Amino acid sequence: MRTAVLALADSRFPGGGHAHSGGVEEAITSGIVSSVDSLREFLRGRLGVAGSLQAVFAAAATHAASRGVTTGHWKRLDTELDARTPSAAQRESSRAQGGGTLRAGRSAWPSPALERLASARPRPHHPLVLGALAAAGGSAPRESAHAAAYLAVSGPSSGGVRLLGLDPMAVNAAVAALEPDIARTADEAARWAGADPAAFPTPGGPALDLLAEEHDRHHHEEGRLFAS
Amino acid sequence: MPPEHAHDHPHTHPVSFDPTAAGPDPHAPAPRRDRPLRLGIGGPVGSGKTALTAALCRTLGAELELAVVTNDIYTTEDADFLRSAAVLDESRIEAVRTGACPHTAVRDDITANLDAVERLTGRHPGLDLVVVESGGDNLTAVFSRGLADSQVFVVDVAGGDKVPRKGGPGVTTADLLVINKVDLAGRVGADMAVMVSDAHRVRGELPVVTQSLTEDPAASEVAGWVRAQLAPVGG
Predict the structure, then answer these.
(1) Chain A nearest CA to B76, separation (Å)
(2) Alpha carbon of A221 to those of A89, A113, B58, B89, B150: distances in Å?
(3) What is the ipTM of this complex?
């Protein structure tokens, strides 16, 4: 595994991810998540939906970057991910993290592919930036898919630590226990890396979409600590 | 920073390993090109950061193009305060959600704040000053130099007159330390002489301002310091 992928998956990476809970804050408010066990099951579900989708597009972005695809292809990838993200709040969260990761990653792993992606969309979706940066750092699609799958659960898990005061050792163990699921998600995603983006899988998770929209609405009414 | 220090370091600066040593940052600030000055205002909860921000907006708003980013834990709270005080137009305020980690948002991962600054400068291209007010935090919280060009740390007499002595990067390294609510000193039994002398001792040459916004709602002294920060380097 290359350093770029480790750094991109590190919570220390300054791409703005620390302010996103991926629905965990809203799940806690609504009582869906209230313990380490319920957090683990929420994360397992999140991995299967958001994690799978993000892993596929991260792998595709790494594949695309290493082949020097055109700006038009980057636009296509970004549009295909838009089409698979029905919640406007989730699209905004993905673009906020994508834009932040682009800013933070540009100085560490600059590449012509990254600039073509940035010219296609000023705030690309997060998995695309992640994949392009991983490629510039010498990584293969399977590795960026692995990082995307891991990030889909690691960041949100800290929402449970910060908002519920859950034991961080237990939460870390819950994330570690997802290893078989994370590995399977990354393996599956890597198989799509070179396929036509229109044919990519379309995992659907209405609960996550609704939580994201509720989170956005509640923020305007009473304030929320996380950006998603 | 004296003009003879505008160099690319052909020589070295002496390094002090004394942990109590303080003094101005020996390095020239990063050059600002066609962008507003970014002023960080940090300090513990309840020390008066938002009140100071509002006062600066009232005092400087007529002479400068300015905008504010707030990082309050319930992020809309400070923004609402600034709006309701009619200090700033809504389009000049951005509220950042910090993921329950206010110090992370201004120091370790400044992305959300940089995004907010970009939105403000996009909306108001002629801005001279963007005040970034951190969420209330502890004495170790400082702004990243990647976010704030200059920073003010606000403590208050009601928080205890031992605070300056305790030090911490906020108190010792901020470009300006403000000791706020001095009108309350007698009521809370705070010894101002001790506070001010401790502050100067831990801060070396760095400036300290004592103020009461009850007595001086314009925050005149801090506003004057901000004007000096905005003056061209060497001018």
Answers:
(1) 6
(2) 15, 41, 28, 20, 34
(3) 0.89
